[in-house]
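Quick illustration, no need to memorize.
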Amino acid sequence: MRLVFAGTPEFARAALERLHGAGFEIPLVLTQPDRPAGRGMKLQASPVKQFAQSQGMAVVQPRSLRLDGKFPEDAAQARAALEAARADAMVVAAYGLLLPPWVLASPRLGCLNIHASLLPRWRGAAPIHRAIEAGDERSGVTIMQMDEGLDTGDMLLVESRPIAPHETTATLHDKLATLGARLIVEALELAACGGLRPQPQPQEGVTYAHKIDKAESAVDWSLPAAVIERRIRAFDPFPGATGVLGGEVLKLWRAEVLPAPASAPGGTVLQAGPAGLDVATGVGVLRLTELQRPGGRRLAAGQVLHGMAVVPGACFTSGPR
């Protein structure tokens, strides 16, 4: 089976590597254009491009796939490459560009998407973050037959995983990337012998995982401790939850909810010691156990406090928006 692969970040790279290892012929890879990254803001290839080039795969990086859009020359180049690839199917994983109808109709078996949620829950751009933020008990991967809607296509394979109590976006991402890579191989093997049984998505339970905005990183201390703790985990590693203490913006990386009522306004430091910072919230107390000062490393809160003069009664404010 000949495949075109479309994807950009590490989540997609895991699938591309698994497909390559399973022996699928991949004559073409589509990925986002190189972006500035790092302290020097040098152009950096996506994880998918790096792997594809290491294996000698052809790579095309259109800024758009719309023939009538802002970059028609990019779309025309991609169309010529897709026609030359003569693909049986296209696999899409966190690509980052909308696929117009001409792309969806191009491969014989259409386009199969690896989506990191249990559809129809968390359609959209940030399903892993939003599942943790919402306190979902389970997540998973859906292999979906793509159509013109936003993650509305028929489900081909679904497998769920529990979300552990201390799960972060980083740890759940890695688990679902591995799961998605395995499921897409299984789906294509079934497709090759006519064994796939598409199922329409349920009409009930649809939610949308809106893209993460950096402004969301600022902690609202009037919220319940349990909600803030989930957001801290959901925003690890990006964008990172933040709070301002003594004029200094701190990244908040790990916390735990204490079984105690709040006895002060939200954001008030109740206790500072080796175990961490106990902070009052709108409902309950949150103990911050891992912090990061500007220009520093992620450290246990007790270590960070060695270099900060924090006393009970000091007050957190929200980070910059």
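Residues 2-209 form a domain with the Rossmann fold fold (CATH 3.40.50.170).
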